[in-house]
Amino acid sequence: MSEVRVAGVGLTSFGASPNRTGRDLFAEAADSAFEDADVSRTDVEIVRYGNFMGELAEHQGHQGPLMAEAAGVSAPATRYESACASSATAIRDAVVSIRNGESDVCLVGGAERMTHLGTAGATEALAIAADDLWEVRAGVTFPGAYGLMATAYFDQFGGGREDLAHVAVKNHVHALENEKAQYQREISVEDVLEAPAVSEPLGLYDSCPISDGAAALVLVSDEYAETHDLAAPVAITGSGQGGDRMALHDREHLARSPAADDAAAEAYEDADITADDVAAAEVHDCFTIAEVLAIESLGIVDRGEGIAAARDGYTTVDGPVPVNLSGGLKAKGHPVGATGASQLVELTHLLEGHHPHSDAIDGDTVVAHNAGGTVASCVVHVLEVVA
Amino acid sequence: MSDDVRNDGYDDWLDALEGDQAFYLECTAGHGSLPPRRVCPECGSGELSETPLPTAGELDTFTVTHVPTPAFADDAPYVTGIVDFGPVRVTGRVLELDPDEIEPGLTVEATVIETDTTGERLVGFRPR
Ligand SMILES: [Zn+2]
């Protein structure tokens, strides 16, 4: 079985670029990835691309070939839609393809154009990740669904808004040196607590922003890397995917994410690691409570202890297992279809030693957690330095 | 989707709730689910029967939404809750109470209401 190497990575700035098309965003990210990889575009055999709301945001379906063309690649291309987990899902299939020997060079990534929709339009578009009949028609928004999970978590495990505020404060600190981040400014616990309510108990600063952006990676087989003398020390050594019932009310647990538990277990077994090996993680903190649930599913902390992890410094840049050193979705931004791929871009920089926080991690095994909806979909990847 | 197009199963369920005939779908193994279904989502059983929904349910969790989608622009702020009726949970609008008075464990019953913004039907929960 071939090993999957990360040959190159690319990222646009995340933030508000309302007049830039999705195709232009992805073209920029892919161009950076090819430049970083030193791989010829003509060697690409498949394109696997994630996007969530292209039909609503740009009146554009069938984005696979469009994005391959924008990237200057002539290869079969498929667009993956799995809500906020779209691009990690796309990457997972490229990993499988390389491992199976079906392809040696894959362009993967994702993009989303959102800010031109405005808050109401983006809220409406994001809500379609929920069950239209049984949730959206009942008034459930994306923040509303996580508000329901936060109330359930406080009820079952304790904790409160101030604990969640520390997650947001931490992620803003982590993003201070991230030049691609939407926000490079510190916020205080008071700022979070006093911000306008969005879906109580969650406020504006518990929520990731609405963002435009794209991410891309060039993945290659280890044989290709060797033949072409590529410097590609980072490998994707584990991949796992979990699923759950669509509507939150149909889940066994309202304050847990079994799909993430399953994705992590599969990815860890695949990479032959345990949670103790994890030196750092990029997790899907679309809302502060989501980071709490994610680190519990990844086994970074025990069940019920995720709420205190940021406050106690366990997941801060100085802590034993830093989480979201990029700033996470909260501060880096969340262009939905790009997010899962952007996590792998950040982790590759972290492991290769040219991330502002590369010195903060103790070990060379890191994980990415990308979740869709209220975690009815989840993909976890393990990245390691192998050479 | 046009407002005058029905969603069979879902709208039938709201009709039943309006007529005090609320039900859930029960498979032979006792799993509960909400329509439309051809098979049980838990075990795949194709033998589903309409079983009366217990009248009283318990509020499991809630949120107060201040930033709505356009379809709920005139409704916000509103309280959304998930209510456990035993065999199934249902999501809907918590009625009549101020957010300060609401906490998990509250006993409620389901009803059908209309949104202020569009007049579309949705599930409401009244304290009992
Ligand atoms: Zn069943």
TrEMBL record, chain A:
Keywords: Acyltransferase, Isoprene biosynthesis, Transferase. Residues 240-384 form the Thiolase C-terminal domain. The keyword Acyltransferase applies. InterPro entries: Thiolase, Thiolase-like, Thiolase_C_2, Thiolase_N. One of its GO terms (molecular function) is acyltransferase activity, transferring groups other than amino-acyl groups. Gene3D superfamilies: 3.40.47.10. The keyword Acyltransferase applies. GO terms for biological process: isoprenoid biosynthetic process. Residues 15-222 form the Thiolase N-terminal domain. This is Propanoyl-CoA C-acyltransferase. It comes from Halovivax asiaticus JCM 14624. The lineage of its organism: Archaea, Methanobacteriati, Methanobacteriota, Stenosarchaea group, Halobacteria.
From TrEMBL, chain B:
Residues 51-111 form the ChsH2 C-terminal OB-fold domain. SUPFAM superfamilies: Nucleic acid-binding proteins. InterPro entries: ChsH2_C, NA-bd_OB-fold, Thioester_dehydratase-like. PANTHER family: BLR3430 PROTEIN. This is ChsH2 C-terminal OB-fold domain-containing protein. It comes from Halovivax asiaticus JCM 14624.
